[in-house]
Amino acid sequence: MSNVEKNMIIELSAYDFDALLKGFVPANTRLVSDSVVAPPQILEMLARIAAEIGAKFTPSAWMIVEAGEIVGLCSVIRTPENGEIHIGYGVAPSRERRGCATRAIGELLEWARKDPRVRLLSAETGVENIGSQRVLERNGFIRTGERIDPEDGLVICWQASADEQVPAYNRG
């Protein structure tokens, strides 16, 4: 059984990013056929961030894969400090509202709880992005405040401990 069949999040390598940017897919996967996972400029930005963070902390980026199909991406988007990793994620528009992001972030939390380097996960959502807020809530993230981001405007700040277990009813 391959990792694609066992896991929903699969580590993205520099080679995988390069393949995605060229329109190819990593082994044993396929792209969503009816929408893009991420526009090229976002893929380029994520590849750059993953390379920078990956020099100090790995893994730093994952594909969100469901039934062999790459439905989204998730990554550490800031260099980890004091055991805190800050994550970002997204799924193809045609795969939104199907629980893919909720399940993927749940799996990411499971990974974090097994990694002794990680004590805390943080994320931010736009105030209007109710779907993303629900993803975090279902996975036990707690709203910790708001801030003004120079690019995104008002965002809600979230955190989840890597030391706590999330109740099973919150997932899915």
From TrEMBL:
SUPFAM superfamilies hit by this protein: Acyl-CoA N-acyltransferases (Nat)
A single GO molecular function term of this UniProt record: acyltransferase activity, transferring groups other than amino-acyl groups
Positions of the N-acetyltransferase domain: 7-163
PANTHER family, sorted: ACETYLTRANSFERASE, GNAT FAMILY, PUTATIVE (AFU_ORTHOLOGUE AFUA_3G00765)-RELATED-RELATED
Protein name per the record: N-acetyltransferase
PROSITE patterns registered for this protein in UniProt: GNAT
